[in-house]
Amino acid sequence: MRVVTETANYGYFANSVDVENPNKLVPSVSPANFSGPELFHRLLGKCYNLTEERYRYTFCPFQNFTQYEISPRWNAYQGILGIWSHWHIENNTFAAMVFKNGDQCGDIDRSVKVSLKTRYVCHKDALVVYPRLSSELQKEWNHLLTELHYGDITKKGYQVGLEKIFQKAGLADTNPTKRPETTTTATSLKEGDTFIDLQTCNKQYKNLKDEIARLSLELEAMKLMLDLSKMHNRTNKPFRVTSSQ
């Protein structure tokens, strides 16, 4: 059963109500495909209700999360809190189910994160991500770990690569909220800043390249002085004469 069967808005202040059928919620997007541990596939098509005070919440795994106000007033709220989107992965385990693109609340869309508390996930390996990946994605993960181990990538680079693997597997959000773009000039760059525009990046790269070349010349000069010093010590070392009977 799907509580939300089509795209929707509810209540006087909500934005997902079907005008012709006020008991029907209309989501703005379709739910993502099922993903995650296969043992959760049995939850697909089922819904669970929770009533707290004057609200009833309906949770349909891998479908949607809705809220209904239990009130006799004519404009009681009924709305979509979120549509199934992706998994929240933490410490390389499936930590929570993420539902987004719900009804608007001011300037943002409502969203829900559902943490799983059940005997089926109590085993420490029940929600580990790695065994649920394809062999190709497991190889990519192994390659990332190797690069991290030998220092070819940073921890941040490793996390970025890992996120891409999760996205390929359909586990992570492929359309994260983008932060507003900012501009950076060469004169405003400080230690720890990132290069945003290509012109600034190229200029800083050239400066670093020139600095490396200068340091390399100084290093070669120091090596030459050290070698000359060793030769001088050997040539000026006093002779030691020994005799044998």
TrEMBL record:
User: Ranges for the DMAP1-binding domain?
Assistant: 129-239
Looking at the UniProt record for this protein, which Gene Ontology cellular component terms does it annotate, in alphabetical order? Golgi apparatus
Q: Which PANTHER family match?
A: N-ACETYLGLUCOSAMINE-1-PHOSPHOTRANSFERASE SUBUNIT GAMMA, N-LINKED OLIGOSACCHARIDE PROCESSING
Descriptive protein name:
N-acetylglucosamine-1-phosphotransferase like protein
Q: Which residues form a coiled coil?
A: 198-225
Q: Which UniProt keywords apply?
A: Coiled coil
SUPFAM superfamilies the UniProt entry points to: Mannose 6-phosphate receptor domain
Q: Please give the superkingdom of this protein's source.
A: Eukaryota
